[in-house]
Structure formats: structure tokens, C-alpha cells
Design a protein that fits this description.
heterodimer; A: alpha/beta; Pyruvate-ferredoxin Oxidoreductase, domain 3; Rossmann fold; six-stranded mixed β-sheet; 22 strands; about 35% helix; globular; B: alpha/beta; eight-stranded mixed β-sheet; three-stranded antiparallel β-sheet
Chain lengths: ~625, ~350
């Protein structure tokens, strides 16, 4: 942990009169109007919990509009975090506590709160106008509908205004400090340290001392309120998790992906070139990389998605570690450029942070429905390797693996992430840079005059040489027209075309020889195999672990390599009586498994813009097992 | 020790590929002049990259023994931008046509010009789609009868130089395929310009739009239908150099120098004017109302995208030191588990 600033005082301790109960963990959701600062609150709570040594997992969930109509259900922004004293892989299914800043936040989130769970509401916002905006006929605080919860009514607006009184702030600005009041209260409730957030406040608002002070006062007022009010009889402690020894950082998926790309470039002696067009939920990759210029990272914000992929290909031709990042609609636009990259046989990474589709779909919600697009979404026979990240921290590793494959096989590679892991975060054990994989890249050397250079000659992996403009004697022309092998000369010969189509496919198929065998969690043979890919890893692995601990015959194979599949996957699939493929789409991996291995798999498919709950998976696993048992 | 470098001749820039344009195509002349200019400038072949899109003109890179990229339709400026940004040491040419550059690729052309990427863009304008066999293009004249406009074109045409100047191109010129000396001079100036160079070449398509520029190339008429721009000189034209262009307010007019108008009353060409309005006005002078200007319309200095991008890299390194991964990974709030 870095040192604290001098202005930060020590944290007040809870009064001894109140009991402190120990918890294994807690799942909390903070919900309010978009623009109310719920995402900030959630991020701060997460980081603070991580710094306390808890394992954490998060799920931010926000509307597509920047400021949807205030007070409405459509405008509700939420942030869910689970912190725990043991290893966790998901942000939790059911809520132990819900903090609702207004009626709309309450009504849209209440169904996820456990019976007996803690419901903290800003009672000041439950007036007739707010109820009307939330389309509620009755005030739930008065009609007895909340009986099964522990409801804590806190006049947050009033208390916040009182806290910042005397600073000469208008009511509007004073009310903006409410999220810090709520934060202080939650921090007291779960014994979180105020220091990191106080430091954040002073860093962030340093140039506006009155705002910084107001936020600090609101935060402390929230804490003090928890301590003094009689509404709470106890607060909680969650002990640190027993993570492997090391230094940790709570990393978000998009940041991990950006760092993985920089790392891959650096460790292969390259400079990174990212060409991108802003798109939710991928833009943070562009933001993060644009501030890493001292690593030689060149970011190009292109005029459109097509220009972005084309500029990346141009940079790759010039020898850069080239990447274009986008989401599904952007991939649709890049299809022709990706096809060219397949023909040119140049290394390139195309990042797709998937979101709900089709078309504009659900821009801020997660989905896994671009798998078939990744494999098949181009004209002609146009294969390229496809990899998917499993979790926020895994994005770091997968980015490096994508680059390794791209340069070893001279091919564009599609890297799939999704909105859930892109915006989610988890503790990432900071690696020792010396232990990270290094890729050696050898460009062909200059040729003497009279020498013959063959731009489409091939090595044992069928990869062609990456000859860089500027190298004397290697002048050559490449393009999208079909070409002769080895010489690269344009050819319309029919036999040559078939040979080249097969050759390009064979090259990509050989990637399977160059990647690890598929691993399985659980018994190597048994009743049920759960096969998953991408961001559902956390939920699937948690569900399978739960079932294993109950003695059920179930195993889990989570795929990183979606094209080509790992070479032992067919064998694994045959070792189980049934195969279940949970996906946030209508069965795309299931289709590929059926087509490739003739496996009669069952799907668990959900397209609600939300991740799987562990309980949904456990229920389905048990149903499947019951079919065998019967 | 000094090394005697061999002198490169125009033929040294030719690749071993057979040129497959139609006999009589204006493209041959552009290819020949390009090789001559490269030899005149002694540009090392390995430092040259020709990037094209799709269309007749876009086969150009295959015929040069340099690095080349025959890309996809309309996107050549984007590929070139990425390459030049990553590799400012290369001399990058974009070869495009009226369909490739102004129709499917209009967006990229506009943005590449406004960024002032140090590229040389040559747009072969033949006012027709050649490779797809004769449909009208964005520069086809109103009323033109083509395969896809049997009753005449009803789309108002674009004028490439008006677009380029509208995007504040730092170098803008027009030349004609058959005027080989002029063509060579313009290409050389484009090559020498720092920043984006945009050159429109009037190029005859012998098969699908033969004679489209006859008014500007006909030996007997061209002195009256074109006007050669020269920096610092008045706009004078005509077989007997007896006509000129004068400004009346913001309107150009053709005046007779023998009717009492003196040269000093004429519009003087200033290719270095920071303000592009006069260059734009010149780009709107069209046959038959006016002689069409050829030559350099505009040549100004402005910061280049590729140079600025690389300056930022240098500045970031000067300020923060070269990137250190271990330091980056520990730049946030971290905690240690023992």
C-alpha cells in the first residue's frame, strides 16, 4: 500500500457499545440515479476492500444513456461487489445488502435482495414526485411491502446538507456529496478503512478544495452516523482472504487487456500501435493505452471502425505490434479489413469486447453472442485464431498469448472479451516481469542486389516472412488478390486458389499444435462435463466447485482457445455421459462442438444482458445429473 | 571511407510484372513519370511504399519495384496513415481513383487530408468506373450517359480539389496525363512537400469515357481551356496570352487584356496563402465558363500528424522516462500478501 497523504487523519473506531460480527463475505449492491456517482462509490468500496486483503469481484451495471431521465427506472445505475475472506470468482448471486438512493433504484433491484437482507434507503428521496418518476403508486416504505427485509431509513439528503453546511455550496452541489455519505455509512457497516478514499478525494478534487472538503465531510458524516445512530446494533468484519503470497492490484478487465498488449509488445521488442474508434464497452482500452506513450505506444483514434482496422494493418506492414479494439458492431465493419489481413498474412490483434446485440443492441450490457461472427463473419474461406479471456485478470495473459500466436503464425487473431469482464475487477497478482513469456521475432535481413526474395515462402508452421519496408532488397507487393504461394505474385489459377485456401486454413489449424492441452477441473471421467468459454468462467467454476463439494460427478472445461479447439477436446468430451454448455447466447459454442465432434450437448442459454447466477448453473447441473441418474 | 552509390534509373523502379492496363490508358503516362521522378530524386526503392485501394489505378503498386500494398476499396488513406504513423522514415504514396477515393473512400480521404499526414496522394480522375466496366462515378458530369445512367446522370458531381481544399490540404495540385512535363513537375513537387500532398490527374479512360478531357488536352484548344498556375504570377491564358482572370468581389471573371485591362488588375496566384479561400475559388473555375487551372493551387506548411504523434512519444519519454513494466504494474493502490 502506498503511503497516505498528510491531510488524512486516522480512522475513527466504532464505539464499543456496538457488536462487531464476523462474516465470511458479503454481496452488496449500490443503486441510484445514473450520474449519482454509484460507479465511483462501487469502485472505491472495491479497492478499499481489496486493500484490506479481501478477495473481490465486481459487476457494474449502468444504462446506455449518460444521464437518462432523472429518477426513472431506466436511469438506474448499479454497482455490485462481493468481498470475501476466501477465493471467489463472481460478484455474487443474491444480495446481502442493497443501498437504494431513490425509489427507482429500490424497485428495480429489490428482487435480488435476500429475505432478511439489509436494505438501506435514502428516505428523503421517497417523496411523491420521486415515487411518480419511478412509476410507483404506493410508498414501499409505508405499505408494509418491505417487511421481510431489515429496512434502515436514513435521511441522507438532509444529513449530507448538514454535513457540508457552512462551506457556501449550493444545494445542488451539496446533494452531489450524497454518494460519499452513503459510502461512509457502508464503510462503517463493513469496517472498511476510510484512508484510501480520503486520499482519492484529495487527489481527485485537489484543485477544488471546497469540493474536496465537502466530500470528505460527507464521507465522515456517513461513518459517524453509522456509529451513533441506534438504527444499527452491530457492524461487520470480513477477514482477509488467504490469497497466494505476492503483491496484488485490483484490476479491471479493459485495463488488464491494455497492459497485456503493452507487455506483449515490449517483451517482443516491438512498439504497440492501437487504432481504435470509440465504442462501448471497449473504449477504456484506448483510454488506457493513450496514456502509455512513454512505452512507445502509438494510439490512433480513427475516423471509423474500418479506418481503425486498416490503419492497424498498415502499421503491421511497417513492423509495429498492431491492434484494433472494438465491440461487435465494430467487428462487423472491420470484416473486410480482417479478410485482407488473412490474405496478407500479417500479425494483428482484433479485440472484441462483446456487448448485447444484434445491431446497436444493449451497448452497456454483457453478452457472448459474437462467437460465430468471430469464426465465420467474413467473406470467403477466411479462418483466423480466436481466443477468449475468462476473467478481468485473465485479459492480461490472453492479450500476450494472442500476440504470440499472431507473430508465430503471421495471422490476425481475434481476442474476445465481454462487457462483464471488461468493466469487472478482481485482485491480480502482479507478475515478475522477468518470468513473463517472451516472443522472439526475426525479420528477414537485407538482400544483396540480384538476390531473390520470396514474400510468401513458409517456415515449418507455414508462416511467411515478415519483411519490413525500409529493408534493402526485400521490396515486394502484397494485396487482397489471390496469389501464388512463395512468390506472392497475383494468380487467378483455379488449382492455385484451392491450394492457397487450404494452405491458409491448415496454417491456422496448426495453432492447435502450439497451444496447451485443455485442462479439466474435477474428475477426468464422469457423468457431466460443463463446457464454457469467456466471461462465464467465474460463475461456471463456482457452480461446479459447489457441486463437486456435494459429491456430484461433474467436471468443468473452460475454453480459452475457440479456434482452433485444443487438440484433446474431442477426447475429453467423450469421457462424460452428458455435456452441458452454458452460454450468454442461444447456443453458439454448442453448435460448434456439435459440428466438430458430433457431441449431443445441452445448452443453458441466457440473453438478458446479465451474467449467469451461480444458482442458475447449479440448478441446471443437478437437472442434467438427474436425467442420468433416472 | 565513402561509398559510391549506384545511380538509380527510371527503369530500376519498374517491377517484373507485365503492365495490364488497356492500350492507350492514361495510367501508363503517370507510371512513366513516377519512375522518372523517383530517379530524379534518387529515392531509395526500399524507402518507398505505394498503397492503393481497388480500381484500375489501384493496380499501380504492382508495377513499381518498391514496397507496395494493394488494399481494399477506398481505404488506402487509412492503411497509409497507419504505416506512416508507425514508420515516419518511409515515403508513402497513395494511389487512388475518383470512385475509390471519393465514393467508397471519401471519408478516409477527408480525414487523412485534415490530419495532414505526410503522404502523397495521387487521384486518377477519369470520371468513370473502369474496372467494373463503365458505371458513372462521383465525378461524372450531370447528364452523362453510362451503363448505370442510360437517361443521364442526375447526381451532382464532386470536384476533387474542392474537397481537398475544403479539408485544408497543405499541398493541392492538378495536372493532365498527356502533359508529361507538367505531370512530372507536379509529382516531384508533391514528393518534396512535407505534409499531405493531393494531386488530381486528369486521366483518360480510352474504353469507357474516351475524350472526357479532350477540351483540356487538345493541342489547339488547351491554351484557351486551361490556365497554368505559377506562384506570384498573374493568371493569364490564351493562345496569344491575351486573356486573364480578374476578381470582382468574390467572383472571378475572364477579361481581355487588349481591352485596357492591365496585368496588375489580374488575380495574382499565391500558393502560399494561409487562407484557402482563393485556392478554393480556383478549384471552382470550370470549363466551359472558365479555363481550368492546372499546377499547384496551394503549398503551405502545417504540423504533420505523423511527426506530432512521434513528438508526443518523445515528449512522454523525456518526461516520464522509457516505459518500465514493473513500475506500471505497481502504479496503482497495491497490497501485499505474505
Amino acid at each position: 500500500m502506498t503511503s497516505t497523504t498528510e491531510s488524512v487523519e486516522s480512522v475513527p473506531q466504532p464505539a464499543p457499545a456496538k457488536k462487531t460480527l464476523s462474516l465470511d463475505g458479503a454481496t452488496i449492491r449500490l443503486a441510484g440515479d445514473s450520474g449519482d456517482g454509484m460507479q465511483l462509490l462501487g469502485t472505491q468500496l472495491t479497492n478499499t476492500s481489496a486493500l484490506l486483503g479481501n478477495d473481490v469481484a465486481t459487476f457494474p451495471d449502468y444504462p446506455a444513456e449518460i444521464r437518462a431521465p432523472r429518477g426513472t427506472r431506466a436511469g438506474v445505475s448499479g454497482f455490485q461487489v462481493q468481498f470475501s475472506s476466501h477465493d471467489i470468482f463472481t460478484p455474487g448471486d443474491r444480495l446481502d445488502a442493497l443501498i437504494a438512493m431513490n425509489p427507482a433504484a429500490l424497485v428495480t433491484n429489490l428482487s435480488d435482495l435476500e429475505a432478511g437482507g439489509l436494505l438501506i434507503v435514502n428516505v428523503d428521496s421517497f417523496d411523491a414526485k420521486e415515487l411518480r418518476l419511478a412509476q410507483m403508486e404506493h410508498n414501499p416504505l409505508e405499505d408494509g411491502s418491505l417487511e421481510k427485509y431489515q429496512v434502515v431509513r436514513v435521511p441522507m439528503t438532509m444529513l449530507t446538507r448538514n454535513a457540508v453546511e457552512g462551506l457556501g455550496l449550493g444545494v445542488k452541489i451539496a446533494d452531489r456529496c450524497r454518494n460519499f455519505f452513503a459510502m461512509g455509512l457502508v464503510y462503517w457497516l463493513y469496517g472498511r478503512d476510510l484512508t484510501p478514499t480520503l486520499r482519492y478525494i484529495h487527489d481527485k478534487f485537489g484543485s477544488k478544495p471546497d469540493i474536496a472538503l465537502a466530500n470528505e465531510r460527507a464521507l465522515r458524516a456517513g461513518w459517524n452516523y453509522g456509529e451513533t445512530t441506534e438504527l444499527f446494533t452491530s457492524n461487520y468484519r470480513v477477514a482477509p482472504a488467504r490469497l497466494a503470497a505476492g503483491t496484488y492490484y485490483n484490476i479491471m478487465g479493459n485495463q488488464a487487456l491494455a497492459w497485456g498488449l503493452v507487455t506483449a509488445a515490449q517483451l517482443s521488442g516491438k512498439e504497440l500501435f492501437l487504432a481504435s474508434y470509440p465504442i462501448t464497452p471497449a473504449s477504456d482500452i484506448l483510454h488506457e493505452l493513450s496514456r502509455l506513450k512513454h512505452f512507445g505506444v502509438r494510439t490512433f483514434q480513427a475516423e471509423d471502425e474500418i479506418a481503425a482496422v486498416c490503419a492497424a494493418i498498415g502499421a503491421s506492414f511497417g513492423g509495429a505490434a498492431a491492434v484494433t479494439s472494438t465491440s461487435g458492431p465494430g467487428v462487423a465493419l472491420k470484416a473486410e479489413g480482417m479478410g485482407l489481413a488473412v490474405m496478407l498474412e500479417l500479425p494483428l490483434i482484433v479485440v472484441n469486447v462483446q456487448r448485447g446485440g444484434p445491431s446497436t443492441g444493449l451497448p452497456t450490457k454483457t453478452e457472448q453472442a459474437d462467437l460465430l461472427q468471430a469464426l465465420c463473419g467474413r467473406n470467403g474461406e477466411c479462418p483466423l485464431p480466436v481466443l477468449a479471456a475468462a476473467s478481468p485478470a485473465d485479459c492480461f495473459d490472453v492479450a500476450q498469448e494472442a500476440w504470440r500466436i499472431a507473430v508465430r503464425f503471421m495471422t490476425p487473431v481475434m481476442l474476445l472479451s465481454d462487457g462483464y469482464i471488461a468493466n469487472g475487477s478482481e485482485p491480480w497478482r502482479i507478475p515478475d516481469v522477468d518470468q513473463l513469456p517472451r516472443v522472439t521475432i526475426q525479420h528477414p535481413q537485407p538482400l544483396e542486389p540480384g538476390g531473390v526474395f520470396l514474400p510468401y515462402d513458409r517456415d515449418e508452421r507455414l508462416a511467411r516472412p515478415w519483411a519490413l519496408p525500409g529493408t534493402p532488397g526485400l521490396m515486394h507487393r502484397i494485396g487482397g488478390l489471390e496469389k501464388q504461394n512463395r512468390t506472392g505474385t497475383v494468380s487467378y489459377d483455379s488449382d492455385n486458389h484451392e491450394a492457397m485456401v487450404r494452405l491458409r486454413a491448415q496454417k491456422v489449424a496448426r495453432v492447435a499444435q502450439d497451444v496447451p492441452l485443455q485442462q479439466v477441473l474435477g474428475p477426468p471421467r464422469g457423468d457431466l462435463l460443463v463446457v464454457s468459454w469467456g466471461g462465464t468462467y467465474g460463475a461456471c467454476t463456482t457452480a461446479v466447485q459447489q457441486c463437486l463439494s456435494q459429491g456430484l460427478s461433474v467436471a468443468h472445461a473452460h475454453l480459452r482457445y475457440l479456434h482452433p479447439f485444443p487438440r484433446n477436446l474431442g477426447e475429453i468430451l467423450r469421457n462424460y455421459k452428458r455435456v452441458l454448455v452454458p452460454e450468454l447466447n442461444l447456443g453458439q459454442l454448442r453448435l460448434l462442438l456439435a459440428a466438430t465432434y458430433l457431441v449431443d450437448a445441452t445448452g443453458l442459454n441466457k440473453v438478458k444482458g446479465k451474467p449467469f447466477a451461480v444458482s442458475e448453473l447449479v440448478d441446471k447441473i443437478k437437472q442434467e445429473l438427474a436425467l442420468i441418474g433416472g | 571511407m565513402s561509398i559510391e552509390l549506384p545511380t538509380l534509373k527510371p527503369t530500376d523502379y519498374a517491377s517484373n510484372q507485365d503492365v495490364r492496363w488497356c492500350p492507350g490508358c492514361g495510367d501508363y503516362s503517370i507510371l512513366a513519370q513516377m519512375k522518372k521522378v523517383m530517379a530524379a530524386l534518387q529515392t531509395p526503392r526500399e524507402k518507398l511504399v505505394f498503397i492503393s485501394g481497388i480500381g484500375c489505378s489501384s493496380r499501380f503498386p504492382y508495377y513499381m519495384d518498391t514496397y507496395g500494398l494493394h488494399s481494399i476499396h477506398g481505404r488506402a488513406p487509412a492503411f497509409a496513415t497507419g504505416l506512416k504513423a508507425a514508420r515516419p522514415d518511409l515515403q508513402v504514396w497513395v494511389i487512388t481513383g475518383d470512385g475509390d477515393g471519393l465514393s467508397i473512400g471519401g471519408n478516409h480521404l477527408m480525414h487523412c487530408i485534415r490530419r495532414n499526414v505526410d503522404l502523397n496522394i495521387v487521384l486518377f480522375n477519369n470520371r468513370i468506373y473502369g474496372l467494373t466496366k463503365g458505371q458513372y462515378s462521383p465525378t461524372s458530369r450531370l447528364g452523362a450517359v453510362t451503363k448505370s445512367s442510360p437517361m443521364g446522370v442526375i447526381d451532382n458531381p464532386l470536384y476533387p480539389l474542392s474537397i481537398a481544399i475544403g479539408c485544408e490540404a497543405t499541398f493541392v495540385a492538378r495536372t493532365v496525363d498527356t502533359n508529361v512535363k507538367h505531370l512530372g513537375d507536379v509529382l516531384q513537387r508533391a514528393a518534396e512537400h512535407q505534409g499531405v500532398s493531393f494531386v488530381e490527374v486528369y486521366q483518360n479512360c480510352v474504353v469507357f469515357n474516351d475524350g472526357a478531357f479532350e477540351y483540356a488536352t487538345d493541342r489547339d484548344r488547351k491554351a484557351d481551356t486551361t490556365i497554368e498556375l505559377q506562384h506570384g504570377k498573374p493568371l493569364i491564358f490564351g493562345t496569344h496570352r491575351d486573356k486573364g482572370i480578374r476578381l470582382r468581389g468574390m467572383e472571378p471573371e475572364v477579361v481581355d487584356l487588349q481591352s485596357g485591362v492591365s496585368e496588375d488588375d489580374l488575380l495574382f496566384h499565391d500558393e502560399k496563402a494561409a487562407e484557402p479561400s482563393l485556392a478554393y475559388l480556383l478549384s471552382r473555375m470550370r470549363y466551359p465558363d472558365f479555363p481550368e487551372p492546372i499546377g499547384v493551387f496551394r503549398a503551405v506548411d502545417r504540423p504533420r500528424y505523423d511527426a506530432e504523434l512521434n513528438h508526443q512519444i518523445d515528449a512522454a519519454r523525456a518526461k516520464r522516462g522509457p516505459g518500465d513494466l514493473a513500475q506500471l504494474f505497481r502504479s496503482g493502490d497495491t497490497w501485499t500478501v505474505t
